[in-house]
Amino acid sequence: MPASIATWLELDSAMSPAVAADARTLWYLATPSGAPQIWRLDLDSDAPPVQVTSHEDRVMMIRTAPKGPAVAYGIDAGGDERMQLRLLPGGGVAARPLTDAPDVIHGWGGFSPDGAQLAFTANDRDPASTDLLVMDVATGARRRVWATGGPYELAGWHPDGKRLLALSVPRDLESLPVLVDVASGAHEWLTPRAKRRYLAPRWRKDGAGFWCLSDRDGEHLALCWFELATRRLEALATPPHDVERLAVSPDQRTIAFVVNEEGWSRLRFLDVGSGALVDAPALPDGTIGDMSWAGTARLVLALSTPTAPSALWLVERDRHRARELPALPRHSAPPAPAQAPVLFEFPTADGRVPAWFYRPEGIAPDGGFPALIWVHGGPAMQARPEFRADIQWCLTRGIAVMVPNIRGSTGYGRAYTEADDHALRPAAIADVEAARRGLIARGDIDPARIAIMGQSYGGWMVLAATTRYPQGWACAIDFYGIASWTTFFEQTGIWRRSHRAAEYGDPVLDRELLEELSPLKDADRIATPMLVAQGLRDPRVAPLESEQIVAALRRRNHPVEYVTIPDEGHGFVKRRNRMTVYAAVARFLEASLALKPPPA
Q1: Quick check: 525 and 495 in contact, CB under 8 A?
Q2: For the chain, which end, N or C, has fewer CB atoms within 10 Å of the first or last residue's CB respectively?
Q3: Could you tell me where in the chain the CATH 3.40.50.1820 domains are found?
Q4: Are residues 29 and 15 in contact, defined by beta-carbon separation less than 8 angstroms?
Q5: Per-residue pLDDT, 600
Q6: Is the CB of residue 8 less than 8 Å from the CB of residue 394?
Q7: Is the pLDDT of residue 598 over 70?
């Protein structure tokens, strides 16, 4: 008998590794309690992992101090993304709050080189701007270094402890470095103001420059060196794909970096002295998350494969080997053999779109498999071959799944990501219809039993596809999708409005375009049963968006089910809430796709 979707959702994961200054104490986040919490593991002993925090809500991030055992972390309330910072001093001392302003969004900036201060951002002065602040760790005294005029992130301290490196992030595909004097707040732009990216900067110890990822000179992100005195950018590794992560070893002789090859993560090493690329030990096929060096020859990373949730791996560079760490208190085995996808391309009117295709085992039934098209959010994101409980459950119930990376997705170059901007958006909707036709053209899919599902921007795409191409869908699942661009801009967090306007269009200047792209005005064209799910504390897509589409469908007695979760935001994080939402998804798909009951 196929396992219930709840059984798949019970699988635990570990992520966000952060190794302490002693090079042996590993801090990380894991989910055995139902939401990501802080755990600790000794890399050099056989002691079992220890859970350190037990908050009701998720821990969002964790960072270790450059000296000593202290750990800083962030936590929000019910998914509202208003992160508050806390400090674990170490030695069994309880955490103390560093910030206590529930209406303010805080962003991490980093410990100073001596560990005595930390930098962070806050939008307390102006909700649309993230100012730069510095705090004395011992006393909690804080000072506003720079009152910015927009969205900024902090990338850390200069090695001299007197300056901060900030990144201006006004829109997708733009991230520009600014050097800020801590004492005076004086700031200087290090590069021309252009729509380019300088990501993940890591200073050399002498402060002469930093390593980073940049697409200044091409379509893809490359591993680069930026020299401060000359403002010269030098490419160190330029694969024909995006370099998406980097981690510099403590002795700064080796850089670990990750290349996104058609969605798969490939780990590489760069010898800084010679510039030579060095092969890394083999890892299972999947996607690599955060990385943290444990000394100069060991690297800890998070790895998610299509068939198993995220786990922590220890890579030993000199011994050229890798192994999974015992980071979870119990082994989480899938209730059935999980399956990996294959890359699949389907034609569009002007090209081809890549997608991941998951095929159920066995011979297709008469008429073909029922299928689900799952559309990612973003839109500047990429569907990756990562573990998803809902996809694996679908496969056990005989549902094929396609996950397309329609135009607007990242991972295929800047031009492809920008191919859906503003007035080009309808072409992305047409990509989803092309995905449906591409599935049918395979010959093993039932054309009458194709569902569509998506979240956030993917939820908008569900609504857009079912209004523009209403006859092609057996059912639709909309997770917190945008129904009206007008009300979306009115309701979304003010700190996000200019950033989102750069992607979708200005709510005033492009009002006519945004009204045309709002599915709510065409809700009477929806011809398929719909399930809508919404977190009621969502700061990005307000519940009003889901409420409007549900109300429009109910006014004409159209079949619609509405699931609301009071203590979630933009996404369903807590296991009990995921159980509620995905149990509804499972029931809805079984009924709408006319699945046979599982054998007793």
Answers
A1: no
A2: C
A3: 342-592
A4: yes
A5: 53
A6: no
A7: no
Q: Give the Cα-Cα-Cα angle 111, 116, 122 (nearest 5 degrees).
A: 50
Give me 57's structure tokens. Answer: 């809500």
Tokens 């005294």: give the residue.
Answer: 141
Quick one: fold of 1-103? Neuraminidase (2.120.10)
d(CA 24, CA 14): 17
Please give the angle made by the CA atoms of 579, 583 and 584, to the nearest 5 degrees. Answer: 125
Task: Tell me how far the alpha carbon of residue 494 is from its chain's centroid.
Answer: 21
* Second CATH level (architecture) for the domain 342-592: 3-Layer(aba) Sandwich (3.40)
pLDDT, tens only, 488-508: 999 998 888 788 877 897 888
Residues of the chain with CATH 2.120.10.30: 1-103, 201-326
Helix axis angle, 457-468 to 425-442, nearest 10°:
70
CA distance 224 to 242: 12
pTM for the predicted model, two decimal places: 0.95
User: At 547, is the secondary structure helix, strand, or coil?
Assistant: helix
Cis peptide before 379 (omega within 30 of 0): yes
Q: Which residues contact 105 (CB under 8 A, 6 or more apart)?
A: 81, 82, 83, 122, 123, 130, 495
DSSP state of 175: B
The runs of H, that is alpha helices, within 382-481 are 389-396, 414-417, 425-442, 457-468
Place of tokens 């897509």: 541
Please say if the pLDDT value at position 237 is more than 80.
Answer: yes
d(CA 140, CA 143): 10
Strand-by-strand arrangement of the 277-279 sheet: 242-248, 254-261, 264-271, 277-279
What is the enclosing helix (H) or strand (E) of 512?
helix 511-516
| Integer Cα distance of 310 and 11 in angstroms | 10
CATH entry 2.120.10.30 includes domain 201-326: yes
Strand partners, 305: 308
Q: Residue 358 to residues 20, 371, 402, 405, 528: CA-CA distances in angstroms?
A: 40, 10, 6, 14, 24
User: Is the confidence at residue 510, as pLDDT, over 90?
Assistant: no
What 203-207 contacts at long range (C-beta under 8 Å, 24+ apart), as own/partner pairs, is: 203/156, 203/157, 203/158, 203/159, 203/165, 204/159, 204/252, 205/159, 205/252, 206/159, 207/158, 207/159, 207/160
Q: Is the pLDDT of residue 2 over 90?
A: no
Give me the torsion for CA of 485, 489, 495, 496, rounded to 10°: 10
pLDDT at 1: 66
Cβ atoms < 10 Å from Cβ of 96: 10
